[in-house]
Amino acid sequence: MVRRYRGDGCVSRFLKNINDPSTCIRVRMKPHQVHFFTKIMEAYCHLVFISPVNAREGIVALYATPDNMPEVRKILANFPYPVEIMD
To answer: What 3-state class would DSSP assign to 47?
Structure first.
C-alpha cells in the first residue's frame, strides 16, 4: 500500500517566504484531493511549480511566471471540484 505524502518537505519550507502575487498563488482544498490536484497540475508541463505547503490542511502553493499566471487562474476556475484561492 502506498503512503500518502504528508506535505512536510524541505521545499515547502523554503518557498514559504515568497509572497509575490504575480508569481505565487496559495490554494486550499479538501486534504484527500491534494494528490489528484498535484497530478493534474503537473500534467500542464512547464506551466506551474507545485509545492504542498500543508497537505494535512489541503494548502498548496503554485509558482508560475507572471505571463503564465492568467492561464493558471483559468485552470483553477474550471477545476472539477472546488479550489479556494487564498490570496
So the answer is: coil
pLDDT in tens, 39-55: 988 888 788 988 888 88
Which residue reads 505547503 in cell numbers? 53
| pTM score | 0.72
What does the block give as the cell for 47?
506551466
Q: Where are the domains of the chain?
A: 10-85
Which backbone phi and psi does 54 adopt, to 5 degrees?
Answer: -150, 95
Closest CA to 48 of 75, 30, 28: 75
DSSP state of 4: P
